[in-house]
Amino acid sequence: MPSIGLMTLDEQSEYAFHLHIAKRAVENGLDVYRFLPEAIDERKKVITGWRFFKEEKTWLSDRFSYPNFIYDRCFYRNEDEQKQFESKVKSLQHNPNTLFLTYDLPDKWTFYEIMKHNELIKPYLPDTSYAKNAKQLLKEAKEKGKILLKPAFGFAGRGIFVIEHKKDEFVVKTVKGKNTLEKSSDGKNVGRWLQALIDKRSYIVQPFLNLSDDSNRPFDLRLLLQKDGQGNWNVRGKVLRFGKGKGIISNLHAGGEPVPYDKWRERFPASKIAFIENEIHELTSTIPPLLETIFRPLVELGIDLGIDQNGAVWLLEVSGKPGRNVYFKLDRNVYASLCEAPVQYVTDVLHTANGNKEGET
């Protein structure tokens, strides 16, 4: 029987999401497994993890061969953690009878360096540079007034800093949990602190874009794109995420709230929303095939867009492993549909493959 494996770094991570997938998958005639990358035995080509049983509606310990399809939901906190399991994951990726549905895209700096050469995408990219030293950061903050410092490797808005130059001092803001922390000092002290920060990990620098609404709440537009069994990309999810007033990020982890796209668009004149939606269409039509040409085939993508107060659209981030929590908070039916899409894709692929085999006999 065809099988799908759900790979995760933590046994409890996205448990409800994986359970939803498992129930749908067994209904479609698939064996479903769940496992941690550390449990991959490269030599024997087997994995120790859990199998979902339809009758019991639960996961039970099992040892199994490499699944036919892998839905990779590992969110690595840094490069070291990713490298820790690199050999085991590649063993799966290189297995001729295994197809990965999702992949990690390159870090933010590498991604920018690649995408800036595409003439269609380049206008949507904020100017980006690699953080080399504190002197560079303080210089850019002085010239631009305010800059954004982002970890090159990371997700969920963690580790982002805003550096602002005010008269004879620098103000640094960041988010811890749901709170915005702020401290200010002279260039010497802030420079020393920044140097220690970028010595520990890689960062990129961008201008601070005014991506806030009239109430000074930061927001972004999150799009979820999924591929159907015929290989066509579709925008399946579209939602706004609003952060706290005067905050610096809109992520739900930092206390943000979701707003339905259709509700948000009602506030704009037809001409402005037509321009924004044309820009969205341009990006969603261009990005998926471009990424698949440069990297490898994908099944779903998350695209985060910023919209400034002039209506200009900015490409903030693209993820090969998009989340779904924001949709769960808005519409359970939409959430269920988005959860089931990977299973439907696998089912369609198997159906097409079986049809081709029958045609050859």
Observed structural traits:
D-amino Acid Aminotransferase, Chain A, domain 1, 7-stranded mixed beta sheet, 10 helices, Rossmann fold, 29% strand
Structure description:
- With 361 residues, the chain is of the alpha+beta class.
- It folds into 3 domains: 3-100, Rossmann fold (3-Layer(aba) Sandwich); 108-125 and 213-343, ATP-grasp fold, B domain (D-amino Acid Aminotransferase, Chain A, domain 1), CATH 3.30.470; 129-207, no CATH class.
- The chain is 34% helix and 29% strand.
- The protein is built from 10 helices and 18 strands.
- Strands 1, 2, 3, 4, 5, 6 and 7 form a 7-stranded mixed β-sheet that branches. It has a 6-stranded antiparallel β-sheet with strand order 8-13-9-10-11-12, covered by helices on one side.
- Strand 4 and strand 5 form a beta hairpin.
- The longest helix is centred in the C-terminal third of the chain and has 29 residues, at 332-360.
- The mean pLDDT is 90.
- Pfam families: ATPgrasp_YheCD.
- It comes from Fervidibacillus albus.
- Keywords: ATP-binding, Nucleotide-binding.
- Residues 112-347 form the ATP-grasp domain.
- InterPro entries: ATP-grasp, YheC/D.
